[in-house]
Design a protein that fits this description.
Helix content: 40-55%
CATH architecture of the largest domain: 2-Layer Sandwich
Order of helices and strands: EHEEHHEHEEHEHEHHHHHEHEEHEEHHH
Strand content: 15-25%
Structural class: alpha+beta
CATH superfamily of the largest domain: Reverse transcriptase/Diguanylate cyclase domain
CATH class of the largest domain: Alpha Beta
Distance between the termini: 65 Å
CATH topology of the largest domain: Alpha-Beta Plaits
Number of strands: 13
Strand order of the largest sheet: 5-6-1-7-8
Number of helices: 16
DNA sequence: TCTGGGGTCCTAGGACCC
DNA sequence: TCTGGGGTCCTAGGACCC
């Protein structure tokens, strides 16, 4: 049976959502009508462009570039901080709308969903018409726009939604790829990033059509599995399914860019402890145990290095994770001036009643009680109630 | 007034085992 | 005393996505 996929992508999501929220709260200025960006706090060295208005884009401002560069391109650009809670709320509302069309909705990111409507359409319904209906409904209800990609292949639907923006619906059926996809430069291809472009170019691959028609085994020889994947995508044969059942995370991590470079391990350990608190809390909220702990540092030259280790016993306690993280930090730290510290737990496994006995040891139950008490404080007063050393530090820095 | 943060997947090399 | 080969596990690093 012919498959029926939609990919729906919010146009300039963080910027649009912030703009709509501000209008709702009585603001007269629509950020979408001026050169504006969502950006981080420069005094805390988070000064990058997270999202931009279409007008900002016309000035050549790019996502992820430093704000000072954006200002150089457009001195009058308005920079606004983001609000993740607002974004989460709009994302949830969208998801609810999509679920009225099919239960097969995959939340690919906070502002993108895949819908599988195969077998969900009545005989008189048409996939494109449904796409238009969804698009118009969102615009009317919320006041922001989306792009809709329509295809009989999941990845082609995603590529289609990336065509001309905003507020557009595009089809890219397998039968249309020669005409609509293959003439585009290979740099436009989903999953082809800036490291792969020159490598592909060196093989004579300039367009997506070149990629699709390139010798498969030669691509595999040069790029391994990755080569096979992008070759399939370019030929419209991803054959991927919409993963509508929410998967458990495989790893959980937090990282922190320090407001100033730190060249001293005891100061790093303070930050490390804060990050472990956060990561361990999120791990417990997922009802999972970690089997691997990873610590990452970035030095003042932006060189990233990391160490990880497998734990002897799976755990979800702050204490165990901190112990491992400290050991890793100590073997990792070489005296560099450090810009960023990160902590991740990996190899996550779901909690099962079975192993309770191992964790009922006196020492463990004590740690558990501490963690539970802290977690209750977090639930009650918000995450910031415990461990505020990071904030105190940056406040001092602001003075 | 220099470059965020959260993820997933893959690869290469070494250790270790049979 | 010149040394294969297959397999698994672990670690470090990198590419890509939003």
């Amino acid at each position: 049976m012919e498959r029926k996929f939609l990919h729906i992508d919010v146009n300039n999501a963080f910027l649009s959502w912030t703009a709509v929220e501000r209008l709702k709260n009585g603001d007269k200025l629509d950020l979408r009508t001026i050169p504006s960006v969502i950006g981080g706090d420069e005094s805390k060295r988070r000064g990058i462009v997270v999202a931009k208005s279409n007008i900002a884009k016309k000035f050549g401002i790019k996502t992820a570039e430093p704000l000072y560069m954006a200002r150089r391109k457009c001195p009058s650009v308005v920079v606004v901080h983001g609000d993740y809670d607002v974004y989460k709320r709009y994302s949830d509302e969208l998801y609810k709308i999509f679920l009225t069309y099919t239960e097969k909705v995959e939340r690919f990111s906070i502002d993108e969903c895949f819908l599988d409507l195969t077998g969900y359409l009545k005989p008189n319904e048409d996939l494109v018409k449904i796409g238009i209906e969804i698009k118009e409904k969102i615009k009317k209800k919320f006041g922001f726009t989306v792009n809709v990609g329509v295809s009989d292949d999941k990845i082609l639907a995603k590529i289609a939604s990336d065509f001309e923006k905003p507020d557009k619906l595009h089809t890219l059926f397998k039968s249309e790829i020669e005409e609509k996809l293959w003439n585009l430069p290979v740099s436009e291809m989903f999953m082809v990033g800036k490291k792969s472009i020159p490598k592909l170019n060196r093989l004579g691959i300039k367009t997506i059509g070149d990629l699709a028609n390139f010798d498969k085994s030669l691509l595999i020889k040069n790029f391994g599995k990755y080569g096979y994947m992008i070759w399939k995508y370019a030929n419209g044969n991803s054959n991927e399914e919409v993963n509508y059942i929410k998967e458990k995370p495989k790893g959980i991590g937090n990282s922190y860019t320090l407001p100033y470079d730190v060249g001293n391990i005891s100061e790093l350990e303070v930050i490390l402890a804060q990050l472990v608190e956060k990561v361990a809390y999120r791990l417990r909220k997922e009802d999972m145990y970690a089997t691997v702990v990873n610590v990452q540092l970035k030095n003042n030259n932006f060189k990233v290095f990391s160490h990880q280790k497998k734990l002897d016993v799976r755990t979800d306690t702050t204490k165990d994770i901190l112990k491992a993280a400290k050991e890793l930090l100590n073997e990792l730290y070489n005296g560099d001036f450090i810009r960023l510290v990160g902590v991740r737990v990996d190899g996550l496994v779901e909690k099962k009643e079975m192993q309770l006995s191992i964790f009922d040891m006196p020492e463990n139950s004590k740690n558990k009680k501490i963690d539970e008490a802290m977690d209750r404080l977090r639930e009650k007063f918000g995450e910031d109630i415990v461990g505020r050393a990071i904030d105190i530090k940056s406040n001092i820095d602001d003075k």
